[in-house]
Specification:
The complex is a heterodimer.
Chain A lengths: L22 E6 L5 E6 L2 E5 L2 E6 L3 H9 L2 E7 L6 E12 L3 H16 L10 E12 L15 H12 L4 H14 L5 E7 L5 E8 L9 E3 L3 H8 L4 E3 L2 H14 L20 E9 L2 E10 L7 H21 L7 H13 L4 H7 L5
Antiparallel strand pairs in A: 1-2, 1-5, 3-4, 4-7, 5-6, 6-7, 8-9, 8-13, 9-10, 11-12, 12-13
Helix pairs in contact in A: 2-5, 3-4, 3-7, 4-7
Chain B lengths: L5 H7 L4 E7 L5 E11 L5 E7 L4 H9 L2 E7 L6 E13 L2 H20 L15 E13 L8 E2 L1
The chains are: A alpha+beta, B alpha+beta.
């Protein structure tokens, strides 16, 4: 049994912030009464600050006004180690990049389960970290951190650069996801010429290709990531679904309904990373990675895929020889893979890699 | 005083996740993971267990301010309840208590396995040595995520 009061750097426990295991928060009222509840998102801003999602926190909100001190409990999914963060509430943000980032994640999950009307992020509570300590446990050894592999990134770039046409580029992208990154289930969706819908043009690792599936911009996890030009990473779909159902069951808003869009591909997706492919700030499409394993995609994967997806988008643009700043050109580029076929579905099927 | 119904008792005494919070006299909140929640015969008291190795702050708070909050959540349905009350005593767990805790931990592990939580999760979540906390239930709240979270029961 190891007990420690040593301060733990937040950067050394990245998976605690992945949302795989629900976190808890304790606050205290002015009369000394404690309150404990669950928390959707604890976002690490830096080693000294975290941001907490504010959704359904009536009592917690009240308590932090009268007493800014809080304690958050985080569980590390790979080890079960528990970390206690002593916090001091500083301020609430209801707009800006931090708020938008957390809002996109919650909105995407909400939209996926038809919960857009009741699943609103009210604000993001920014807190200063006074201390972070590990609770005593039997197996205190940390897990090796996952770090971006630059050699893999370089090999990915080389594979993408060698493509001679769009078909090859899509194949190379999916093959590189599989061979170099170890992401065995992936698909690419491109923006259609109307700029309002995405359609699947290539996939790898699925028993059925999902080719031709369409998603409207702004709908579901994929559509929201595309509409907001922001990566969305879901680390535990089963928990997200259970959480959404609980919210729905306790909501009086019967009109919210279920309008979820079936995900292409895996029947039991647990983790998903949707990365917008941007060329000169124009949306070309999205690269979607899926896994049946909770926590399969971590923050480092999100950063790396953001870089690589942009590279694919730029390569796509270069291959069709279009002017980078032209909206029309971007639109044309996205139509490229379909031009030689009768429908996107037909074309997509030809780009599907079976594994 | 709040009286726990038989239906709520069934939920509380199932394979739920249990977190408790206490506070010191200066208003510092303290969390702890707890095990084996049990409702007394009359529905007005509760018993819960914490690891001895993690108990120092909790027990100091209970002796100082007496208040305790306990939130239980079903990992599968996310239905959650918070009970608040004042401590009646902190004591050694009996053999019967330890068996109760063991059964609860087994039920909890089944629950989290059903939602595909990482299997290694349980290896650091508890130790065998627990102490017992009894408290008088003063208030109860619906803590299920959603617009009704925080509503008194």
């Amino acid at each position: 049994m190891t007990a420690t009061q040593e301060h733990v750097r937040l950067r050394d426990i990245p998976t605690c912030f992945e949302g795989i295991i629900p976190s808890t928060i304790a606050t205290v009222d002015s009369d000394g009464t404690p309150n404990v509840t669950y928390l959707s998102i604890v976002h690490r801003i830096d080693d000294d600050h975290v941001a907490l999602s504010r959704q359904f926190f009536k009592k917690t909100d009240h308590n932090t006004i009268v007493n800014p001190l809080a304690q958050v409990g985080l569980i590390e999914p790979e080890t079960g180690r528990m970390f206690l963060l002593d916090l001091e509430y500083t301020h609430t943000e209801s707009d800006g990049p931090l708020f938008e980032r957390m809002r996109t994640h919650l909105d995407a999950v909400a939209a996926q389960h038809g919960m857009s009307n009741v699943f609103k992020l009210k604000g993001v509570d920014v807190c200063r970290v006074l201390s972070c300590t590990m609770a005593p446990c039997d197996f205190p050894e940390p897990v090796p951190p996952r770090t971006p592999d630059l050699e893999t990134a370089e090999a990915f770039s080389r594979a993408v650069a060698q493509a001679d046409d769009l078909d090859e580029l899509l194949q190379a992208t999916l093959q590189a996801c599989q061979d170099l990154m170890g992401f065995t289930h992936a698909f690419v969706m491109l923006l259609d010429e109307s700029g309002e819908r995405l359609y699947t043009v290539a996939s790898a690792g699925y028993s059925t290709s999902g080719a031709g599936s369409e998603v409207a911009l702004g709908e579901g996890i994929i559509g929201l990531a595309a509409a907001r030009r922001q990566s969305v990473r879901v680390t535990n779909m089963a928990r997200e679904l259970a959480y959404s159902r609980a919210v729905q069951a306790s909501s009086s808003d019967e009109g919210s309904g279920l309008d979820s869009i079936p995900l292409p591909g895996l029947p039991s997706v647990q983790s998903q990373l949707v990365t917008p492919m941007l060329a000169h700030r124009e949306l070309v499409g999205v690269l979607v990675l899926q896994s049946e394993r909770p926590g399969a995609f971590q923050a480092t994967d999100e950063w790396l895929m953001g870089i690589l997806a942009s590279q694919v988008a730029l390569a796509m643009e270069a291959l069709v020889g279009l002017e980078p700043s032209s909206n029309a050109a971007a639109s044309e580029a996205t139509r490229g893979p379909c031009r030689s076929s009768t429908t996107p579905t037909t074309r997509a099927s030809s780009s599907t890699t079976s594994t | 005083m709040y009286v726990v119904s038989d239906e709520l008792r069934g939920l509380i005494e199932s394979g739920v996740a249990v977190s408790i919070a206490t506070a010191d006299a200066a208003g510092h909140p303290h969390l702890n993971t707890a095990w084996g929640p049990r409702i007394g015969a009359g529905g007005t008291t509760a018993t819960v267990f914490i690891d001895r190795a993690r108990s120092a702050t909790t027990t100091a708070d209970l002796h100082s301010t007496r208040w305790i909050a306990m939130t239980i959540g079903d990992p599968i349905s996310y239905r959650s309840i918070q009970l608040k009350g004042t401590q009646l005593g902190v004591s050694e767990a009996s053999e019967e208590d330890r068996e109760w805790v063991r059964l609860h931990r087994e039920a909890f592990m089944v629950s989290i396995a059903l939602i595909d939580d990482p299997p290694a999760l349980g290896r650091n979540m508890w130790t065998e040595d627990v102490i017992r906390i009894d408290f008088q239930i003063e208030q109860a709240f619906d803590q299920t995520p959603g617009p009704n979270a925080g509503q008194p029961l």
